Amino acid sequence: MKMVDNKTLDKAMGKAEVLIEALPYIQRFNRRIIVVKYGGAAMLDESLKEKVIEDVVLLKLVGFKPIIVHGGGKEISRWVEKIGMQPHFESGLRVTDEATLELAEMVLGKVNQDLVSLIAKLGVEPVGISGKDGNLLTAKKKKAPNGKDIGYVGEVTHVDPKILYDMLEKDFLPVVFPIGGDEEGHSYNINADDAARAIAEAVGAEKLAFLSDIEGLYLDKDDPSTLISEIYVDEARDLIDQGAVQGGMLPKLKNCIAAIENGVSRVHILDGRIRHCLLLEIFTDKGVGTAVLDNKEAKFYNE
């Protein structure tokens, strides 16, 4: 006969308490769509990659309807250099000529299939698609803020979510890479944050989560202790107007605000370098990143 010691029992009780803490969040978001933008260092570290995919699979298995939208900028740069080309950027945007576009589409397709394989190993049925499939993402040519031509870089003009709805209805997990096309059949490389936001708006997502290499939004950008757990969209606008948000956080926060303005209830900025960051943010009372909320939403963490 095997006896259960107190240490083992305490450990089991701890796991039970975690599940109970997650229960109200599971109940609230059951059968709701969540869009996860996956990028940054977590795509390059195999261990972190597995944890992110485990998180998304768990979300699906407890009743969420996740959609992954992924980038691959660092991998594209690696391949550009590998074949002897030199990556060029203008105002933070990759200059994309025909050769770079062809390479980007190839690399993003490979990243996509790697993610699909990881998901399939965990017993969920994924489908990998590009923004061109089913005319999901229609785009037009985008210029740098200074007006310079940056080639085949696109901005989303329309999202047709039918292909996503069809996959979700059939219990598939869509995995999207952000290559879109215009009405003339030209392809464009689209910023993954922009594509994820546009998709989240089009499908009426309850949540949009940006996974990147930043912990979240700081009240003081130089002081990690000022991490903001939750912020209403009006407060976020005020921070931008005051000039308190700069660098790479500025376009990310603007995407958060735009998503809220177009019907997404909560947008999360998460550090993909933290193991299981999605689960910690969505299913625990403390959270680990920054959540931007519609003004009508109740705060979870700072009540």
Query: What is the helix content?
Result: 40-55%
- What is the helix/strand order? HEHEHEEHEEEHEEEHEEHHEHE
Envelope shape:
globular
Low-confidence stretches: none
Mean pLDDT value: 86
Report on the structure:
The protein has nine helices and 14 strands. With 303 residues, it is α/β, with parallel strands linked by helices. Strand 1 (33-38), helix 2 (46-61) and strand 2 form a beta-alpha-beta unit. The strands form three sheets. Strands 5-8-2-1-11-13-14-12 form an eight-stranded mixed beta sheet, with helices on both faces. It has a four-stranded mixed beta sheet with strand order 6-7-10-9, covered by helices on one side. It has a two-stranded antiparallel ribbon with strand order 3-4.
List keywords for this structure.
303 residues; alpha/beta; eight-stranded mixed sheet; four-stranded mixed sheet
